[in-house]
Amino acid sequence: MTPRTTSPHAPGRARTRHALRRDPRAHWLLLLLGLAVAATALVFSGYGRHEIAATEGPAKDCAPADRALRDGGPVLSENPATGATRSARMPAGTVALTYDGGPDPAWTPRLLDVLKRHHAHATFFLTGTEAAAHPGLVRRIRDEGHQLGTHTYSDTNLAAVSGTRAGLELSLGQNTLAGSAGLGTRLLRLPHTATTGTYCADQAAAARRAMADGYVVVAADDAARPLKRGAVRQFTGSTAAVRDTERLFAAPLGDVRFTTVGDGLGLDGVTYPVATTAQVRGTAVLWAQDASRFFVDATVWLMVAAGTITVARLALLFTVARVHVRRVRRRNRRGHRPPRLTEPVSVIVPAYNEEAGIEATIRSLLASTHPYVQIVVVDDGSGDRTYDIAEWMRAQDPRVMVIRQENAGKAAALNTGLKWAQFELVVMIDGDTVFEPDAIGNLIQPFTDPRVGAVSGNTKVGNRQGILGRWQHLEYVIGFNLDRRMFDVLECMPTVPGAIGAFRRSALEGVGGVSEDTLAEDTDLTMALCRAGWRVVYEESAIAWTEAPATVRQLWKQRYRWCYGTLQAMWKHRRALVERGQAGKFGRRGLTYLLLFQTLLPLLAPLVDVFALYGLLFQGAARAALVWLAFTAVQVVSALYALRLDKERFEPVWTLPLQIVVYRQLMYLVVVQSVVTALLGDRLRWQRVQRAGTFSNPPVRQGS
Question: pLDDT band for position 92 (50/70/90)?
């Protein structure tokens, strides 16, 4: 007679256990908002650093400006009555000192000290980005009686940009002066220009557009013009400007007066206090620039740190994997191998709507070369033919036991199976797993060590024909199995996979069986065993084949559940971080590793992609391509090494570059959704993968 049991919960209660709230949707808006902020910060910072929309100076061979402009004085403005351009020169004996660029903390304070010693004033044409970065220097220039002019926001050649861009440059330049000094200015020096005689036609046109907007355009007199005749002297902001100014004051010039452009020509109102609203707007620009630069710089350093940690992780994985290989070889040598365990084993197969694969699963267990295997199939309220197929298999072989219960979830099904299991060694598998004949026998061999409480087997993807299957195959081999080798050596295994794992019954009973607190019952159980002092190891020779999700939607559901459940388990067992002994090893090594590499670093991945796109668009495709090729090369080397360790063919490696571009994004988006779900306190409902039964014979491996 087939044993039957019911869930310990009321009917229907377990089915809604993980459906207390709907999945959040606001996390996608949050992600998009975060990416938009990151992109805006990058663009704003890059704009100010001349990485975006940077323009070069004028070509040396250019069409000259009209004669009237070239032969006039260096100070240009528009006659408001006629619209004609008018020019002016400094009176005899008057020299207007002008400095372009800055302010700069290296040379501006020294220059101000020189001017102060000689009781001279000057006009500073400031670059908006530098004014926003050093508002204290802007205020010092103002407070010491000097005049402020604008040199545009980013030192952009206004003759080489559109009218819209030119207007933006001038507006942002004014905002930085308003925010840092509370002043506006009508004085403008066109970047990349000197005397009006050297103006090209396009520069003259840019000057006229600025004058039409009310600006006074200040050029410079030729350096050969005698200062006693009056002149506008131009210095490019730098340490050389400080030296040249000192030399100018040291020369015997008689009654020459050094002053500002406005004072020398008697221009009133060329600098003026701005309204409170303009100051607020300017302050916002200053804050935005500071915030964007801080964000970009901090993110760059964060990514450098993440890259360094990732490389260190790969080095650790490779080193520890080599140690693991040597241990296995040493253990398998004659004279070092312990007597082979032949104890009978109970295999628990929880099944919910697994009609596509349950027959292949049971047949693979019945074909095991291990002396005796009890197979306990727990049908968890399936709505398909799972129970009927399992019953049919039971009728053919008495080693099969079928138990039927109302749907209560996988953890409850495993606990039910544990009650009916007859032996001390228990293997737990998924309802779609296909075992190799020697898998069970190999899986239980580490139990010769009495400290071992659980053993992780080697899960492989069976349906690896398509591109999605190949990607998952590579992930299992490169990610999961390399990690398990490391966890084994470091004694901090966080997960015995549900597809193939072996346990001591006494160890399971000691931790209260399989917990139903989380969606990752396998991870939760493994962590509980580690905290109880048991060792959890990895047995690479125990191979089981699983059917991976065949669609992106199914893959998303599976990984979302895995990731969310892992976060639940990590939080549940967080006290392991401060515990001692085996629990402490697991906490400080295993939990820290999961937090860093499976939670925090994936959260940085969207930022990495935004920076990569920015670099591709604005920092040169060659540089971005070089970085991508280096990253891909590291991944390929890792893949080849991992495939070699697992005796797998190298053929799927050709899909790796595309996996980096597509599959990686899918995985980090899963982490983003899971973390936000956890932070919002939502409970994720149980989600299972729809099995198609697409593989019946395991793929051939190298050395098989």
Answer: very high
